[in-house]
Amino acid sequence: MVAKLPEVYAEICMVLLFALIVLSQGTQIPAQRSQVNSWFASIIKPAKQRGRTVDPDVAKAEANPKIIKVKKGGGGDFDTITKAIASVPIGNNKRVIISIAPGVYKEKITIDRNKPFITLMGNPKNMPNVTFDGTTKKYGTVDSATIIAFSSYLLISI
């Protein structure tokens, strides 16, 4: 998994970037499959043609990402996702990829707004199972969620 991590991360970023571009263009994906390629080519331009349209903070953060490994039962940098997130400094300005090994993680995860540029990523072939038994009766509607994220520039693939 470690050798493929940058490739998977790049693919996730491309999908999210594509989604943002489509949303910003205000266009709809054509219903006819035969029209999709020409529609895509009309919206997505090579980086050189797009100029400086990427947020400078994002470009800087993505330049040198840090990888933190989470593995249930040990063998990673942390054994819980919560501990890995807690290790990210307040005011973080680098992409921090929290690579989560397969397994069941029973945690209530909160990512505060002062910890931007976090990516939670599992192995696409053997995803982790993140679960929490919060109920609306016990926590209320919003706080019963397994993952609550307030931060900017967050990517989740788990």
Automatic annotation (TrEMBL):
**Where would I find the Pectinesterase catalytic domain in this sequence?**
69-154
Q: Its domain of life?
A: Eukaryota
**Record-linked SUPFAM superfamilies:** Pectin lyase-like
Give the matching Gene3D superfamilies: Single-stranded right-handed beta-helix, Pectin lyase-like
InterPro entries associated with the record:
Pectin_lyas_fold (IPR012334), Pectin_lyase_fold/virulence (IPR011050), Pectinesterase_cat (IPR000070)
Q: Which residues form the signal peptide?
A: 1-26
**Record-listed E.C. numbers:** 3.1.1.11
Pathway listed for it is:
Glycan metabolism; pectin degradation; 2-dehydro-3-deoxy-D-gluconate from pectin: step 1/5
Q: Does the keyword Translocase apply?
A: no
Keyword entries, A-Z: Aspartyl esterase, Hydrolase, Signal
User: What family does the Swiss-Prot or TrEMBL record give for this protein?
Assistant: Belongs to the pectinesterase family.
| Protein name, UniProt field | pectinesterase
Which species is this UniProt entry from?
Hibiscus sabdariffa (roselle)
